[in-house]
Amino acid sequence: MPGKTPQGNGKKPVGSGVRKTKDVEMTDASKTKGKKGAKDTDEEMTVVVPPSKASKQSSKADAEGDVSMDEDKADEDEAKVDPVVQTVADIKSNFALLDRAVALFDARFSLRALRSISIIRKHLTPDIIAQVISDTFPATVASGNIAKQLLLAVGRENAPLGRQGGSEMEVDADPSKASPKNGSKKEHKDIIPETDIFLGILVQVYLFDSKQFQRGAEFSQYLSDRIQTLNRRTLDSLSAKVYFYYSIFCEHIAPLAPSPQSPVVAIRPTLLAALRTAVLRKDVDTQASVIVLLLRNYLLTSHINQADLLVSHTQFPENAVNNQVARFLYYLGRIRSIQLRYTEAHEHLTAATRKAPSSNCALGFSQTATKLLLVVELLMGDIPDRATFRQPTMEVALHPYFLLVQAVRVGNLEDFETTIVDHADTFRRDGTYSLILRLRQNVIKTGIRMMSLSYSRISLRDICIRLQLGSEESAEYIVAKAIRDGVIEATLDRERGFMKSKEVGDVYATREPGEAFHDRIQACLALHDESVKAMRFPMNQHRLELKNAQEAREREREMAKEIQEGDLDDDDLGGDFDGM
User: Fold this and answer.
1) Between these two residues, 217 and 47, which has the higher pLDDT value?
2) Rounded to 5 degrees, what are φ and ψ at 17?
3) Whole-model pTM?
4) CB burial class (10 A; 0-12, 13-18, 19+) of residue 529?
5) What gap in Å lies between CA 557 and CA 170, rounded to an integer?
6) Of 274, 322, 318, which Cα lies nearest the Cα of 294?
7) Is the pLDDT of residue 47 over 70?
């Protein structure tokens, strides 16, 4: 028929489906071409025939193969990241933080750089430290002396300086462009003191982890001398960390404390000079850290009077970091407990345990402070809560103290002495052995109080037998002292030889519950005030806001004055000015 177009090339007509679109294209093509021969039509139709399914699958497979190969290659590149290169990049990334800390006079950036040390120290090696020093310090006289001291500490004193890593080692194609580029780099390549002190801290960390305590102490002495020559407020956080490692190195060098020949005694003049300088410069972090280190130093050698004089003649900074506050309160509580001032010691140790970080990295500090707190509570005549010993992180460490509390609570002198003999090494290692020996009188007082509550009248002979005392005269003396101290409310009949207890009244009729509630409220309010003081804000930010507001007000006054004088009208202002 003349109105129909051929459906195929003499073959069966193709049904509607996948090739429907191609059939329409072929029909349009045949109409536009006009009357051509069969050969031309076949060629035209051959051109528009879609590719076969096999070819599609092969091309798709090739494409997918290319994509999969590219993904595999990318995964291999990611897997081939060298940990040495990554560690070097992590160290160098902290230099920008130190630059911002100096430019903005903000210690928060220095603290961020110090926090990264815990991650970097896992991969520190002498080669990595030497590579960072070589890439950072130029080959000048001043920088070379500082860099050589750092390299000498890690045993890489022959490493070359002025070496650039990464893309900076590429050779420029145009030598005329290379010279000004290198020249400009030398001009602005200034190493701030914060950078080499930070690298010095990394050297200290490496020496401490590798247990090179003698070399670490010598290098720390060089760092402390360099810090004393620099008068920069931005070195506050870094210098605090330097003195911390300096003190730790000296504690691990023989002869150990409490020997008077120990290096911890020789380091005291350096720490006292650092404290004096920090107070004059108002370096809060260094001041708090050095005070804590001095207290620790005096306690290691049992110089309690000197530690007490230090506390009385210095003022711990109020806005110190929470970790240093917790340490200071712990050492202060230990000093007060040795001085028999148990009430003050209990307050300080309670605050120290509350301020201790909840993370596992500070678990040792929490356990040590809790052990001393338990002993102080026993010396005060109180029995610690049983829930303290049920904490998963405290149960194993506090087991000897749990046995001690059980003996004191019951008033069993035999179990008390047995516990001391069995766990004497643990108590000496914790530094609580001398305090625990004072508990013998408390055990006896507790036993007397338990008997006064259980019996309305009991003979001195029975008290002597139950408490395993030597004679009835000793029992009479102990009962009389307990009555005088207010431990028990009873009367002593010396002629008949017995103790008669008084009836116990209602404790809620006294002022004791109200005083306990008041103390808890005061503790919560003090914790809130200290939390507010511990918050850190950008320095001098309020001054910048006031300056911007003042400039805006001045511009508004000038514009209002010009409007009044007729120099400006509302159209010139764009409709944004609404008046004063």
Assistant:
1) 217
2) 165, -125
3) 0.70
4) exposed
5) 57
6) 274
7) no
